[in-house]
User: Fold these one by one.
Assistant:
Number 1:
Amino acid sequence: MTRPTIIAVHGNGGGAFRFARVRPFFADDAPVAFEALTLPGFGGLPLDPECRTLADYAARIESFVTRVNAPRILLGHGIGGSLTLEYLQHFAPSVVGAILHAPVGAQLDTRWFPRLMSSSVTRELGKRLLATPALRPAWKRLFFSDAAPQAFLDQFFAEYGRCEAFGQMFELITADWFAKLKPVALPSALLWGARERVLRLDQAADFRAKLPDAFLEIVPDWDHFPMVEQPEAYARKLMALVERLVAPARAT
């Protein structure tokens, strides 16, 4: 089997830049390769008027995935996990495994933040507040537990202001959408940090119902953005998960 490749799908508000601190640890001689994509409407890219549904976004991911040599493992963080779930509804045979890192989708009808973002006014206001330079010290304390380079964090928060698809994600990723997802039998990992403050660990069981072959991996000292705060440890963990996910394919 050739070297497997992780294809990373970002969360809401940002693009492939969120994985920039991880990339150096996937050198040419590493056992696993790493690619990150930026979807339309994120990371400064214009919104694609043809991306009206999650299936449309899944098709954009598929066009990126199929340009990468197999075997492929799809990694989704936050809403990237939601998009990965949608992708697997349509294109599961194109990958040998999936890693959902603190994904979005479960308990959306009871969580306070999705309910707060239920109107276009609050979605636009929320996006602007997240991008406001004067508020970055507060957001840094809320989102991050450990130190990260200030220049990186400045771009991290600035990307919210350029994210044209920010509000659309709250319209498309709903409790009704999640309820209609069909279970997909695929080697999968549910990855969570024990210090996670954005998406609680108690949601993991809901995702196991959608990925019945998934195992749960909990990392004690991680919060929501270990790819920013602990990039080397994050890379090592991803490589270990990939080894476990591709083992069934190597055995055949």
Number 2:
Amino acid sequence: MKHILIIDDDKINLDCARMTLSNKYKISATISGQQALQFLAINIPDLILLDLNMPFMDGIEVMNRIKADPRTADIPVVFLSAEKDAVTEARCLEVGAVDFLPKPFVPSVLLSRLEKIFNNLDQRNELKDRLNEIKDRSQRDVLTGLWNRAYVGGCVDECLRDGTQGALFMIDMDNFKAINDNYGHDSGDKILKMFADTLRTYSGEEDIPARIGGDEFVIWVPGVTDKESLGSRAGDIIRDLCRKLADCRFETNSSVSLGISISPEDGEDFTDLYNAADKALYYVKQNGKNSYHFYSDSSGQSHKENITNLNYLHEILRRSDAKAGAYDLDLHGFTYIYNFLSRLSERDRYVSMVFLINMIPEDGYTPKDDDNSRAVEMLDQALSTCLRRGDVTARYSPTQVLLLLPGINEGEAVVISERIRVEYESRLPGGRIKLKILRKKVHE
């Protein structure tokens, strides 16, 4: 039942309202503004019926006090008054009332007005909840449920503006791409979810764990700048994640590296702290991996600085392409490479081939989701075996893959097409989803 507070110094009006509403609503009653404010200090009703004219503290003053308190400011208020003129009604609405009813009220009218108010409030609250849900989803990483980069960046900047210092952890898995390449993206996704769950375990109530992208995660730790406690937590995270990776028994030599930056000495906004933590992470990867490092512990500036920064930039540029196998891009990136090879072909007669691999079910066969997933996984493995490190792939649709093979001619393209088909069918014997491979020269 909705809870209504009635505030009226007239006992007859109070009893009449109580009798009208008590069958449908939970009713509380007070006979003065002061008594009502004392009641509201420990209770939050769903709606208030407020008499306008009362001694000592009139309805307008009570209303102002209600709106001034963040706890009660959103409670809808309906004024009751023996004054029926438009000026009085307008005044009540101006101070925030949702409705105005003249006294003596008609019971059926009062009930009807309240029902309409509650219906509108329920619809508004439902819409508000849906908008909050949409906003929350836009700030979350879809796969892991952690916060995304935009959200954590905003929170860090807000904390720093408010004077709250802290530390930023950047966590990255060593050799993560090998898991995707050797065991499939489903296995990679499970590892990412395991990472996320582990980081939640090591995050306090005020901490903000987030996935930045790929296998890169961060944790913003507000209010903590002590290196000893931060280092202890970093070590625990690495040990726990490495133990869980070992339990998965992947033969990829995967481990965990972690970089730490601290405000304000390492940066006064998210971008600076992020870059500092990334450089600290790079230091770990260049010095054996599977450890953590504070950015502020790096050696001081010297004549080697430019070389160091160039090496750092080189590592950043190649970080997503540090393993064997074809270069896997999204369609947008694939287009850039295609256009580059097309220009190269125009200028130097450099021959390249583009392939479109179609996965087509046999006539009369409708594959299930598991069949499609299995076929896609086997094609990925076949391509990983057959393609060179300099080749380029991109997913064109759920059942189509694009390939760019630089520096090969038509005859070599025929051989590679057949090699891909044989490798795919050997991994999926008896499979009813076949490959149709189309090809043509780039810039033909």
Number 3:
Amino acid sequence: MGRIITTFISIATFVQLAAAAPPNVLLIVGDDQAWTDYGFMGHPHIQTPHLDRLASESRVFPRGYVPSSLCRASLATMMTGLYPHQHKITSNDPQLPKGLKAGAAMQDPGYLKLREEMVNLFHKSPNLAQLLEKEGFISLQVGKWWEGNACRCGFTEGMTHGDPTQGGRHGDDGLKIGRQGLQPVFDFLDKAHRERKPFFIWYAPMMPHTPHNPPERLFKKYTDKTHSPYVAKYWAMCEWFDETVGELLARLKKNGQAENTLVIYLHDNGWIQSENSSDFAPKSKRSPYDGGIRTPILIRWPGKVKPGTSDHLAHSIDLAPTILHAVGAEPTPAMPGLNLLDSAAVAARDTLYGAIFEHNAIDIHNPAANVQYRWIIEKNWKLIVPQLARVPHGIPELYDLTNDPTETHNLAAKQPAKVAALSRKLDAWWKP
């Protein structure tokens, strides 16, 4: 039996070698969490010590946004750097066949064909895994993933098989990550360490997303802080998710990979917990309000990004350009976002855009058929415009986010000139 010879390098040597290489990229995506629900964002009860520490080491954009408050469209934007109406993934699923519910539809050949067409639509846009592979990166997908087998999309490794006949829809085996440990990520990090290769990790656990089944020790911690067991479970889920982030960042540090890793954090869409059920409350998920579309965005890159807080607007369309610039690659011409590490460009922008779509697409090929609302934020002003074909009783809503962050006082009737000006700007961005 021959000898197996393994060469080890010290962590100090590894850090020196890494300094001359492009940064690794770790993208951490929370699932269904309000922008307020972190210690570093000032929540009075939820404890997120690991994300708090990450925030203290990062450039923090408290006024970060995703374009749409539904996970599939939002996640597709992170990977492609495009708005949903550009990458065409606007909804979670196709329209259900008449008379069938979601479970039965997964056995319907016509419905499955539409699901595959949606995946193919995503594949028409270059995505981060593919673009980074061209730069010599190895990559890993774990967690939420809607677009079929992860390795079809450019990941060199992935947990999601994407086979609808075996339960593939939004992550399948990948949804075990976090709730059932992080060993697949640890194994990948160790492999990248041994092979001295730059890596990209998509860590998108279905947390704190339902089912809200936190460890009993965490649930008990919050039961005396609220009268609602549903709220206590959700708060406990936020801390459980935070614990997984802490484990992941600790492994990076242990391996000597932290110093040359660009870590980005955000969540896919918001969530306000109902006090009376396990469901979400109004003005959160699937809505055009900040409770559904606002997220803090954190960027940590030791020695390259100075920690601090930016009061400028940031958007998830910026992630792909930011990552590509950091590794020395060029964004595609279709990407409308900014490099968030370019302070001058970020300071010069004062407007963000987005749109809210049907959960089940009316027409998977035509984003305009699925849109419910469009929104625009210009400085402190936010305008929400309903698409009357889908929201027949909707009215324009105008909010001053500085003085009314919970969007309770609609000023549209009092500020018609502002509504008109923002509407023109919104139409110039995208008019369905």
Number 4:
Amino acid sequence: MVDLILAKRAGAAHSREEIDFIIEGVVKDSIKDYQLSAWLMAVCFQGMTLDETTSLTDAMTKSGQVLDLSSIGPVVGDKHSTGGVGDKTTLVFAPMLAAAGVPMAKLSGRGLGHTGGTLDKLEAIPGFRVDLSNEQFVRQVREIGAAISGQTRELAPADGKIYAMRDVTGTVDSLPLIVSSILSKKFAAGTNLIILDVKCGRGALMDTEEKAAELAYRLTCVGDRLGKPVTAVVTDMEQPLGFAVGHTLEVIEAIETLQGRGPADLQELCFGLGALALVKAGKAADEEKGRKILQDVIASGAALAKFRQIIEHQGGDSRVIDNPALMPTAKLQHNVVVPGQGQVWIKHIDGRAVAEACKQIGAGRAAKEDKINLAVGVVLKGKVGSVLAAGQPVAVIHADTPEACRLAADTISNAISYSDTPVAVPSVIKARVG
């Protein structure tokens, strides 16, 4: 392993055999954490070729069991986001698509870096199990059309270990590591309709649209090379998605969106990605018709009923849909107000800074064994383009101590800038690749 660390540090490309050796060592624990972290850093600095990334993805996929979902139906879907701030899309997308007739076998992850994790958010629902076995996962998708769970030890186990190590070694934003992590989970889960939401902006792992497009390109290339075509969409994450950032707060906002009263940007993203998925699945002739199908399952309550069904099948308390107070709730609320005088428009919101404010009050991890506070977070009262008056709240901090409120308030205040003239509302979907 030392030889391979030195080789990658010097910029050499690994052979398939060398990559197989590394992945086998990760799974069998013959490679120590300090060696793995050194190799990850070397990859982060030197990168990998498409051949290497393809080999790494395939080796990680085959490091454990690969599910066969063919008994569920001809099309089984999955959607993945590269991570963002306030990104609760999966909580809306999965039940919405399932209600529209596309089975959703969704494997999700924990928070990584400054971005939140779907599994952490779901654990704000009392009793919700995110650790379904492979058999339970497949059975639930077959029975009710959807499941959202973490990867088991049997599915892409190498990725599970590497994923946790990346979070605490400063190697989260390495393109080949992102590609192999995302795709190995998707391929191991056995889905054949894969929509990838590649975020760009200050709140994303890729801070520019160009970097996000490069990641999207690599994802589609590796998918094609392994005979598993994927579609990637580049979306905005300069500012948080929706208004809520924080685990309980994001579950509440997802429920509101399934009730048809969610934030405009979150609805637009879910309908846009969902319409694309329905076309790919053969459920809609075009995206306009797909969007109409999704609007109907929201308006009829079918999508919300599907989310309730998912919660109940995974051991959660579905009463949270009607009574959010059953989830962890912060002890204090603190308003951050618009400074100055008169009327202003929000010019910019730094998504990463909002995420850092949430970490300051306990909503994120600094080490892989850290516990997170599911109750705390931030709720914005406006987005870029919103008009507010001086003295109005621009954000509400949910925290457990006055000191935490003060820390987060300073960070949030510095994260938001204003204009004296109207500001255009940015588009959510930037580009499509694949």
